[in-house]
């Protein structure tokens, strides 16, 4: 099938060249800025695709994050844009009406898929995630450069503290924190940008994220009396009292928390796998990173198969004149050599199931391979924007040690 597709593509571009056309031209709008490592790799990969497919030309427009504002007006004005990229959820929910359904391409193999069907050369969990955002559960976007939200930690600290394995349960987390403190390390930090993720994840582990969304939307505030809320609050009150949290957590403004990790002052930080690249300028490539999923909690519902995860994603315009070539380009960018190169240069996660991972994210691979449930951001605790400031303010006080668990619960009921 790979040979058949290659022959068909070669014939297509040969015909275009023979008729003195500008060949097959694709217009790609990118979410990256040209100076970013992702853009540099993508441009090199695209030029490589052109070289391998004489007659194909790709015009790249580096939009940066402004694409969130500029793409839809351009599409509405019938501007020729063959493919684009942005966050998976955003492209499907916001621009899905402009996109081509791509399921038919998944069973085909491409030069960079090693003889496999495309669907077998990339993470199935990401394809399923993309489908989950579509009303008809079809595939309207192809994910790449995935991420997972988990605990990022300093493996050197774990080694010096004698911690042999990353914690999987809350009790194991407490035991690890005790060893870290005894070894002279501050076990955990957080800052204002991610403060709500801690209670969100704990409650989702306890009850599931749909319950968390119901909790914050409950106008009667009666659900805050559920024992799981007090259990969560006591768990973090205990961390504060035990000296397991950075003394600066209550006043940390992003990126203070992650810089403390980069400096080696703190061991753990609940964040995304993008953190490795985000603070590479401070840590350097030799920093010994580890990753583990948020632990299970006593009496809880969810385990490590649930997490907030996602990716960027490519879409093809439903009006694209050369969709087969456009998908072949996407396959070229998301599998094989260039998937590996993108992961290497951005210290990110490759979408290919067999692609080598950056050493900094080696432990994240097992998390991805185990994922079944995708949490919304902060595991659902942001579902009510009116309640969110109250949650964040009082949780900050809780981890800062200025209020008790009971006072936190009382504040939530007001």
Report what the structure shows.
- The protein is α/β, with parallel strands linked by helices and 414 residues long.
- The chain folds into two domains: 2-146 and 311-374, D-Maltodextrin-Binding Protein, domain 2 (3-Layer(aba) Sandwich); 148-307 and 376-412, Periplasmic binding protein-like II (D-Maltodextrin-Binding Protein, domain 2).
- Helices cover 45% and strands 14% of the residues.
- The longest helix is centred in the N-terminal third of the chain and has 17 residues, at 2-18.
- The chain is globular.
- Mean pLDDT is 93; it is low at 13-20.
The arrangement of helices and strands along the chain is HEHEHEHHHEHHEHHHHEHHEEEHHHEHH
The percentage of residues in β strands lies in: 5-15%
Structural class of the helices, strands and pairings? alpha/beta
Full CATH superfamily name of the largest domain: Periplasmic binding protein-like II
CATH classification class of the largest domain:
Alpha Beta
Any descriptors?
414 residues, alpha/beta, D-Maltodextrin-Binding Protein, domain 2, 2 domains, eight-stranded mixed sheet, two-stranded parallel ribbon, 10 strands, globular
């Amino acid at each position: 099938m790979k040979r058949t597709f290659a022959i068909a593509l070669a014939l297509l571009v040969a015909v275009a060249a023979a008729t003195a056309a500008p060949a097959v031209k694709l217009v790609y709008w990118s979410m990256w800025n040209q100076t970013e490592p992702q853009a540099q790799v993508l441009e090199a990969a695209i030029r490589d695709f052109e070289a391998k497919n004489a007659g194909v030309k790709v015009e790249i427009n580096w939009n940066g994050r402004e694409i969130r504002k500029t793409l839809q007006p351009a599409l509405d004005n019938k501007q020729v844009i063959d493919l684009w990229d942005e966050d998976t959820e955003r492209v499907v929910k916001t621009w899905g009406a402009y996109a081509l359904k791509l399921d038919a391409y998944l069973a085909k193999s491409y030069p960079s898929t090693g003889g496999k069907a495309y669907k077998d050369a990339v993470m199935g969990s990401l394809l399923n995630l993309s489908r989950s955002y579509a009303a008809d559960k079809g595939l309207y976007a192809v994910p790449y450069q995935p991420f997972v939200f988990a605990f990022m930690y300093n493996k050197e600290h774990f080694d010096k503290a004698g911690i042999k394995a990353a914690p999987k349960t809350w009790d194991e987390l407490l035991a690890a924190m005790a060893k870290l403190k005894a070894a002279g390390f501050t076990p955990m930090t957080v800052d204002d940008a991610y403060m709500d993720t801690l209670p969100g994840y704990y409650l989702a582990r306890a009850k599931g994220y749909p319950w968390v969304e119901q909790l914050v939307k409950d106008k009667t505030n009666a659900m805050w009396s559920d024992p799981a809320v007090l259990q969560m609050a006591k768990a973090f009150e205990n961390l504060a009292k035990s000296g397991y949290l950075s003394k600066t957590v209550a006043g940390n403004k992003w990126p203070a928390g992650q810089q403390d990790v980069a400096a080696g002052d703190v061991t753990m930080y609940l964040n995304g796998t993008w953190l490795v690249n985000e603070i590479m300028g401070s840590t350097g490539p030799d920093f010994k990173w580890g990753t583990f999923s948020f632990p299970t909690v006593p009496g809880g519902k969810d385990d490590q198969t649930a997490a907030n995860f996602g990716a960027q994603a490519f879409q093809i315009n439903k009006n694209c004149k050369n969709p087969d070539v456009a998908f072949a380009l996407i396959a070229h960018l998301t599998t094989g050599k260039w998937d590996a190169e993108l992961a290497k240069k951005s210290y990110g996660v490759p979408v290919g199931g067999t692609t080598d991972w950056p050493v900094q994210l080696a432990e994240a691979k097992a998390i991805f391979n185990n994922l079944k449930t995708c949490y919304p951001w902060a595991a659902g605790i942001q579902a009510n924007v009116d309640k969110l400031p109250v949650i964040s303010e009082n949780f900050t006080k809780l981890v800062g040690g200025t209020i008790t668990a009971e006072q936190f619960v009382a504040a939530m009921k007001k």
